[in-house]
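Batch 3, record 17
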Amino acid sequence: MPRFIRRSLLMVDMTTPSVPEWALEAGSDVLILNFEVVSSENGRALSQSQILESISSATQSTAEIFIRVRREAIQADLEAAVWPGLTGVILPKVEYAQEVQEVSQHLAELEERRSLPEGSLQIDAEIGTAMGVWNSLEIGRASNRLAALTVGETSLYHDLCLNPEANLDQDPLDLIKFQIITNARACGIQPQGMSYPLSITLAEVEEAQLKQAVRRARDMGFKGAICPYVSWVKICNEGFRPSEEELTYYRKVREAFADGLRQGLAFFYLEGRMIDTPVDLRAKVFLEWGDRCARRDAEKPRAISGNAR
Amino acid sequence: MNLMVNRCMVFVPVNNPHFVEQAWTWGADVIILDLEDTVPMSEKEKARNLVRGVIPKVAKGGASVFVRINKEFIESDLRAAVWPGISRIIFPKTESAKEIQLIDTLLTELEKERGIPLGTIEISPALETALGVVNSYSIATSSPRIKKVMGGIGYDLSADLEIEMFANFEQYAYTRAEPALAGMVAGVEATGAPYVPGTGRVDQSEQGKARAQALRNAHIYEAVALHPEQIEPLVIGLTPTPTEVNWAKKVIDVYEKLEQDGESMSQVGEQVVDIYEYRYAQELLQWGDACAAKDQYKMRAVAKARSEH
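Prediction for the assembled complex:
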């Protein structure tokens, strides 16, 4: 079961201190506040105190709050944006474990200075270059603060000189995505990303198509995706979790296995499928996962979260 | 190429008397006596006490006998399992070289104690977690008793990655590729079964045929059957046909003549004959001979067993 229920990570460009209504009410598991947005005159649109205000206002929603920092200004951006209410920080294009360790130290100092619980701030490492992919296992082990490895697809296309408009039959990043997923899991953290081609085109598409794409992303091993639009939130919340149909089947498995145990058996066939101990264990875990998702959705103010009531 | 003929392997829960009595009639090349996932915790001690007596029963049809032990009970399971008549220990959910080295040492002790030629019992680590996959090279090189590394796919791995099984696309591309590459470098076989579309049912012989074809295309000649229905199609499907054997002989003929003439490449019909085709043809003949020997052995064993009934 994933450590965190973060199925939908809604990106919000912050040009004013208040987080827009549509973002607060979107029902996403996470809000990513993007303060990188610059004004036409001189750098970031918001001042430090305005950022503090926005993070505080963001906590009105039931989402966890993350910020993005700029590679060329990590220290400055952390100073400006780490305030109570923040859950974590997204580091773009991480290439070496050391980068994570340095940020982790800075976060520790900020936690102390700004009265945040010690060790509470998390890090999402975005893997956006070939070097990052190669080092993803070390990066994943670099700090206890690491919550996720995220596939930085647009960056990877630049770094690998791939054509984002190629519209291929197969995802050119397939194996890299699986590698990141495997490495994340080997480190006990969760992988975030989306399936091709929506992961790179970021198109607004029909619900059915988006559902299929999320389903595939889930079945690859991703636990959530960055949502470029509000319309993705509901589908991601519904899709990055066991479905009702699957949960019904898992209940059946557990019942049949319990029956078997009573007869001293841990191996049998259910509708032609093989059932043994790990199959039952997985059913148990997925049922718990389904419960956690339902409880997470129940925390949200409206049915926008996606579950029918 | 590993010439042990394991075209089809089947798990038998040691505590299930029906399976134990019937297993020799199924036609599998290998019976894997299981102490692990198909045996409930409450029955494991009983199973340990039964193993020694069960070995000759399941070997009656000419199958090799392996034993799968528990990660949590390495010493007691090995004491129960290592007797003349078994040729390999399967170690599930292997995650480190250290685990294998411990087993190697215990096997040497037990071989000495029990009059089994030293170093002859093989170990097959099974990679069933993300961590196992990322450690595949150190695992593959951890002991000279390793000829084959299993896993890279399957029920436990999908539980560890927290993904649905039978999602109708190749979900294990990376988790198969990484150990396969490590295996090639290490000089052991580490090939997980390629993806074959399916519903999750394991009891259909058509599925067995499709699997055999996919395995052949990937140059893999071993499979696990999870239901007796798939045994025959896998055994037959992974054996060279007379047509293939004749073709291989022709290729060898043609190539050896080319060599004499100082040439390196020719064509027979549509088919190029070069050194790669020549080596493949030689391998195929060797494999064909090994299969024929195994089939003979099994036939004689079955005839003997039936005459004693």
